[in-house]
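Quick bug: Heme oxygenase output formatted oddly.
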Amino acid sequence: MTDNSIRRSQRLNQITHAPHEQLDEAVKANAPFETLASYSRFLSAQYLFQEELKTLYTHPQLIELIADLPDRCRAEQAKADLLDLQAAIPDPVAGAVIGPSLAEALGWLFVSEGSKLGAAFLIKRAVALNLSETFGARHLGEPAGGRAEGWKRFIRIIDDLPFNAEQEREIDRGAVAAFERFNVLLQHAYATASEAEPA
Ligand code: HEM
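Here's what came back:
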């Protein structure tokens, strides 16, 4: 069930439109830019997501396709952000992606890379909490070489790969799973952090 008349990245945009809307709403419902406490929980979800994807960002086969892939990972920035805010480094949460196929991995990376576009809006709000791309909100900062440029290069690579029908399904599956996973991590971050706080 693959539509050959549109680019692969356009199809990914379409099939993740609803999950993106839902996640956007879930993020906003927690008002992460109203208090540092709420922001820290959001950051903790971002950190865990990036940390889980580190194995993909550093995978030799994927680096063969996307040479600057390791530099694109934001696990270190998110960790530095947590340290800036003296927030705890969260323990891993069961259910991280393990051993996806190449195409599935690219679906996950599509979501992680795409989230840098939304980050352009988020970092502007972070300023109200005295956060910036050098303190506390490094992981939302502009990537070296520019957001739009980095995204376009990534998309061009994804769109030009020769995939069979099974791989088309796998990349779709990976992208949808990535949104589901971020949602799990978000819910976890808000649930556990509120328990840890004094009443
Ligand atoms: C973990 C994954 C993601 C998260 C948590 C996320 C979160 C968000 C949030 C909260 C906003 C709203 C920003 C605002 O209005 O202040 C947003 C906007 C945006 N996101 Fe995402 N996003 C993710 C993935 C993606 C992906 C995969 C793409 C592209 C394919 C994308 C593209 C955009 C764009 C272009 C905007 C700007 C305005 C809009 O069109 O709604 N995001 N994102």
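Actually, after a second look the formatting is fine. The chain is about 65% helix and 0% strand. Closing.
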